[in-house]
Design brief:
The structure holds 2 protein chains of 2 kinds.
Chain A lengths: L3 E2 L4 E5 L4 E3 L2 E2 L7 E6 L5 E7 L5 E3 L5 E5 L4 E6 L8 E11 L2 E6 L3 E6 L1
Parallel strand pairs in A: 2-12
Antiparallel strand pairs in A: 1-4, 3-9, 5-6, 5-10, 7-8, 8-9, 10-11, 10-12
Chain B lengths: L3 E3 L3 E4 L5 E7 L5 E8 L3 E10 L2 E4 L6 E7 L2 E6 L8 E8 L6 E2 L3 E5 L1
Parallel strand pairs in B: 2-11
Antiparallel strand pairs in B: 1-3, 3-8, 4-5, 4-9, 5-6, 7-8, 9-10, 9-11
The chains are: A mainly beta, B mainly beta.
Chain lengths: ~120, ~110
């Protein structure tokens, strides 16, 4: 089945450590990819998005992601995490099917940053 | 700013009741979506709509139906609520070249 998958379900890091969260997609054709963050008790917030062009995408709060078509991946990175980055992170993508566009999510990665 | 508004923040319903969740967006978006969010399962797509009166099943449509009579409004219907439908329900809308914009969510409890 066509999907977006996140293999890291829980990640624990110390402050100042580097972060990389994996995201893979399994469908071909045109892809649009997104990363969202959800802080405890809050709504989803868009971190960054990729439609086309430069495969290295810069987002808010110092996050970036790289679209690697050959690996079907769109991993999220941050060079130095802070305690305030503790949250759940979701990768999402659009799936074109018969001219309509599903918008589907991975199962999320819970990040805990230790002060 | 894009605004997606869900009619209720919290709902408590009894098993077997018919439940309506309403969602309205103000940006003339073609596409609208209903998800449920459960711990460890992420956001799962229930139904989506790409135009007025048009709908497609998502990944978990069983027990749900939808209605889109006007472009700005997308309703999720639980025909006969069951306890396993207790969840957070999120509505979203988007145009073809934008990200999805989300409502604040409705936490539904079925007792």
């Amino acid at each position: 089945a066509q999907s977006v998958s996140q293999h890291n379900h829980h990640v624990i890091l110390s402050e100042a450590a580097s972060l990389e969260l994996g995201c893979n997609y399994s469908y071909g054709g045109t892809v649009n990819l997104f990363w969202y963050v959800q802080y405890p008790g809050q709504h989803l917030q868009l971190l960054l998005k990729y439609f086309s062009g430069d495969p290295l995408v810069k987002g808010i709060k110092g996050f970036e992601a790289e679209f690697i078509k050959s690996k079907f991946s769109f991993n999220l990175r941050k060079p130095s995490v802070q305690w305030s980055d503790t949250a759940e992170y979701f990768c999402a993508g659009t799936l074109t099917t018969s001219g309509t566009y599903k918008y589907i999510f991975g199962t999320g990665t819970r990040l805990k940053v230790l002060a | 700013d894009v605004k997606v508004t869900q009619s209720s923040r919290y709902l408590v319903k009894r098993t077997g009741e018919k439940v309506f969740l309403e969602c309205v967006q103000d940006m003339d978006h073609e596409n609208m979506f209903w998800y449920r969010q459960d711990p460890g399962l992420g956001l799962r797509l229930i139904y989506f709509s790409y135009d007025v009166k048009m709908k497609e099943k998502g990944d978990i449509p069983e027990g749900y139906s939808v209605s889109r009579e006007k472009k700005e409004r997308f309703s999720l219907i639980l025909e006969s609520a069951s306890t396993n439908q207790t969840s957070m329900y999120l509505c979203a809308s988007r145009s073809r070249n934008t990200e999805a914009f989300f409502g604040q969510g409705t936490r539904l409890t079925v007792v």
